[in-house]
Design brief:
Blueprint (H helix, E strand, L loop, with lengths): L3 H9 L4 E4 L2 E4 L6 H15 L7 H12 L5 H9 L8 H16 L31 H4 L2
Antiparallel strand pairs: 1-2
Helix pairs in contact: 2-3, 3-5
């Protein structure tokens, strides 16, 4: 039997902090599905070039749903601080993506550099292969 309570408990043990605008924050181990759904709808519309009215409100509501309650007032200060380095719309979207990645166990760092490719330490897993091309007549075997 798959024990989802155990999985939830494991998610709660993950590191759930980030820092922006000189302030540290802690986010919840899970985001309510309905809140994330609204956020995804907004991101889809924005990807199509539409900026619906209330976009910032949706983004901010998503952040508030992500944050542990003790950090919500600090968040309000951070986004309301129009100082020299204000928190931008893009910053908030990146923070949400990071938090959801941690919550779901997706990688949050770029792929590491591979050194097993014969000494070329700068080869990434997405680079073109050094292997010879397999002739078409052999590729179906």
């Amino acid at each position: 039997m798959k024990d989802f309570d155990t999985l939830r408990s494991q998610r709660e043990q993950r590191e759930r902090t980030f820092k922006i605008a000189g302030r540290e924050f802690q986010f919840r181990p899970a985001l309510p599905a309905q809140t994330y759904s609204l956020y995804l709808e907004l991101m889809d519309k924005m990807a199509e070039g539409h900026w619906p009215e209330g976009s910032f409100d949706t983004l901010n509501a998503t952040m508030l749903a992500l944050l542990e309650p003790d950090y919500r007032d600090v968040w309000a200060e951070a986004i309301g601080d129009g100082g020299a380095n204000p928190v931008s719309f893009e910053d908030i979207a990146e923070i949400i993506d990071y938090c959801v990645s941690v919550q779901t166990g997706r990688p949050t760092k770029p792929p590491s550099v591979s050194t097993a490719s014969g000494g070329n330490a700068s080869t990434r897993s997405t680079d073109v292969s050094d292997s010879p091309e397999v002739p078409a007549r052999l590729s179906s075997i």
